[in-house]
Specification:
- It contains 11 helices and 10 strands.
- It is an alpha+beta fold and 328 residues long.
- The protein has a single domain, classed as Catalase HpII,  Chain A, domain 1.
- Helix 2 runs parallel beside helix 4.
- It binds protoporphyrin IX containing FE (HEM).
- Protoporphyrin IX containing FE (HEM) binds next to helix 2, strand 2, strand 3, strand 4 and helix 4.
- Belongs to the catalase family.
- Its EC number is 1.11.1.-.
Amino acid sequence: MSRSLPLLGAGLVAGCLLATGAPAQDADPGAIVDALFKAGGNQPKVRASGAKGVCVKGTFTPTPEAKALSKAPHFAKAVPVTARFSMGGSNPKVSDKAKPVTRGFAMRLSDPAGDMVFVVISAPVFSTRTPQQLLEFATVRAPGPDGKPDAEKIKAFAAANPETTRQAAWLNARPVPASYAGVDYWGVHAYTLTDAKGAATVVKLRWAAAAGQLGLSEEELKAKPDSFYADELKERLSKGPASFDLVAVLAEKDDPTNDPTVQWPEEGRKTVKLGTVAITAPEPDATCDAATFDPVADLPEGVAGPADDPMFAIRSPAYAVSLSRRTN
Ligand code: HEM
């Protein structure tokens, strides 16, 4: 079960994070969630991001190498998985054909000792480096009276914050995925895996689609309706599991752990396969909607997020605000 945080005031949040050695927040999580909602047209009872999506279930089976790197119980035996694929943003009517929009993959690996949650996207980088930057990134995307955001404001923000253009550039250089199961997903943050003896390994995580990168040509894209991912996945799962290999890319000296807008070079890097997530069947929406997938609070001993990345720490209180808004 999720251990979602209760709603916290900004001051208390900053205090909590300082107590754990993480950086102080430079923006209020509630203000960021408000801005995320506004950018998607302020729809009621939806997520502030990943508003359109499908709930599924499956199994995670670890490799022996995973157990050697981390003492998390989820790396010692096969465990059940509840997961949700989604489209980025707070608009539940966004087209599955939209570009440049990340596809999301939230997953809860369950164990009686506690959950292991990852919430990851179909790009190796996040759009912003700091919470304040995310607040501004979302604010300039709010639709005006004509229903459209101000293109000049977006252009000026991008020029002043060039690192915020990397994600869109990456997505624009690739085709729109034909399936939620036909694209790789990345953790974007640096994680530390700790083994039973206390030895630590810093990694970034990638979920490599067994189906490969299934991109749509421009012609195929035109022929698709605005919603096809849910049916495509149902059909795919009726024939067998949709699998992803969980791959750890090991850090090298000078790889930054505090900036999710930077992709570590993968060329020539040591990688370790930690296991396979096999998605086997659809699950009722209610299973995924009752709680939030909290990628910060729901990590076991043996897996830790980066203490120096402010984008990581703020996800927990922001997801709690969104959960509270959509369930009350
Ligand atoms: C930095 C890397 C991040 C990634 C990869 C990411 C990805 C995602 C994904 C895939 C979802 C959909 C989850 C679901 O299906 O339930 C989501 C939800 C959400 N994200 Fe993020 N996100 C990131 C950072 C942030 C940050 C920094 C904030 C705000 C400060 C934020 C705010 C939210 C909120 C409010 C939700 C809705 C949660 C809910 O209502 O359950 N995200 N995110």
